[in-house]
Amino acid sequence: MTTDTHTRRLAPAAPTERLRKYRPDIQGLRAVAIMMVVSMHCGILDIHGGVDVSFVLSGFLIGGQLFAEIDKTGKVSLTKFWARRFRRLAPAMAVTIIGTAVLAWLYASPLRFRGYVEDGLASSLSVMNWRLVETGTDYFADDGSQSPYQHFWSLGIEEQFYVIAPIALVVTAWLSRLVFRNRLLVVLFLMAVIGGSSYLGYTQTSENQPLAYFSTHTRIWEITVGVLLAVSGPLLSRMNTGFAAVLSWLGLGTTLVTALLISAETPLPGYAVAGPVLGAGMIIAGGCAAPRLGAERLLDNPVFNFIGNVSYGWYLWHWPLLILWPYLVSWEVTYSDRFRVAVASFLLAVAMHYAVERRFRNNVQLVARPWKGILAGGVATACAAGAMALAMTVPLNLATSTSTAVAVGYTDETSVEAAALRTKLSATVQGALPKTADNYARHGCIDNTEVAEFKMRDFCVIGDPEGKKTIVLMGDSHAWQWNDAFHEIGKSLGVRVVTMAKGGCSPQEYRVINDELNREYTECDSWRESVFKELGELKPDVIVVADRTRREATRKGAEATFKVLKATGAELVYMTDTPQPGQNVPDCLATHVDDISSCNRKQYEALEYTGFRTMEREVAEEYGASILDTVPAFCTKDVCPSVIGDQVVYFDSSHITSSYSKTLEPFIKPTLEEALAD
After folding, report:
1. Complete domains list, the chain, with CATH
2. Residues 520/548, Cβ–Cβ less than 8 Å
3. How many angstroms separate the CA atoms of 501 and 483, rounded?
4. How far apart are the first and last CA of the chain?
5. Is the pTM of this model over 0.90?
6. Could you tell me if 579 and 553 are in contact, meaning their C-beta atoms sit under 8 angstroms apart?
7. For a 10 Å CB count at each end of the chain, is N or C smaller?
């Protein structure tokens, strides 16, 4: 059954209008947009804004179709509209979602598979953008945490637009025709959406970047710009062709220049996406007048036309291949690998265009009977969603162990040396791997990024809360990772342990740029000052400083902090930073159970920023701190094993597991006992 929404039939277009059904410049701009996206994602060229250009194009094309149908028939067939969208999008999307899951099962880390298929399910239901908002995903993170389905966020926004837009636009057009006898209300409505949505996108960027980047209400303005251009098409087509030509060239320049000025450090979406959106709008607006010497002269060519035809498939496949490529080739991705990903995904897109997209888009039966088109798309969507739901129940490809014995970790330096010679992963460790990501410190406290002041809470006090002596463990997440070990030590010594930690915040006074905030980490500075004040009131017996070594470190900053700490009268202990594994250790172990040596890192690589490490240690010694060198508990003179005893050393790509830290109690305890005695 066809659902029709009616408006009053509008007058025929004026003969001076130069609107065209087919716009070769639009096809060329589609090719430019996908090349921008693939180049940026693959790291070939640091150019942003391709998705923003695509949003404008989608709004213009869909808006043009809807208003053309209203002009021609006085109504819109929602059934036909949604059938066209289903035929265009659903089959290729289903193939990509299922195909990506198969590749992930065959090659990727088993530990990632469940999360991947959950993302695949969200993608098949067109809500991936909201899943990324919920998980607080950093789109530009480069730490192995990205999902092969992450790029479905933009398709989710477009598909949500396709559901709501025809109803909202037709109702608004009908009311506008009824009240004003023209489309004034439509224009005002679209301008209100653009203004409100862009304002939310700008303000939310600094407050909640994942929400601003992925949510529908902060991005819908970009699509709406395209719709507004479609509504204004008849007026724009009457522009002077000379002016239109200049406008389109300026638009192309604006798109490319502003896209190149945006970097991974630019707060996005913020104000920066306005450049590519404005540029795309200028190209489209200028092309409405069909100028002979406009940007269409460049955009209209066989190469761009072909790329535009396969752009949807290229978008679908380039990101999954990029994320899974390290697993496919079993080595760290090189610059040439990134070109290989771009080429391989393009070839997949070409194959899918002819084997899947064209078969559904041009199928006579589906075109003639819209309900069949909706049914075909629904079946494709259901197959993808069902496959993902079924995949969630598949057992992970890892051995299990029935052993209830506590896994041995560090005993002495010989245990580290033995671990360096190990090649196979035991069933005990394989069985523990699925829970390794949650094997982090549970005691004590750590403040998150937004917290600007340390406040003493009951759960910050661990060890023996009634102890007469107090140890303070102070630093960033590389101090927090020791909390459980210090809890056990505090209990055994009858000492109160107060934890003062803040993510990404060094206790040493130097300027830090926070990647999550994309700005100077001022919250760290104020938090550190509040900690110093708290130490003055607390009067601890021992202060232990532990933090991640950073290249921003300065001798002046280290000296300023140790001067303050020494003035408290406490004994000082400086724990050297733990080695950096350079990759997500549980993932690596899960994919190399028969050769875990590839998950171990050379010592000279793991001890990053050696000059800064040496400087911090020297400053600590100058101010009388005892040095607790952690390296012997993690590395031989050549290599830093990822498994010691039967304990996985790291739960991610940086932080040690709680279970391994607790086996280091005999390694740490003597230094603390000596400091307490002094």
Report:
1. 24-391 (no CATH), 442-588+606-634+658-677 (3.40.50.1110)
2. no
3. 10
4. 86
5. no
6. no
7. N
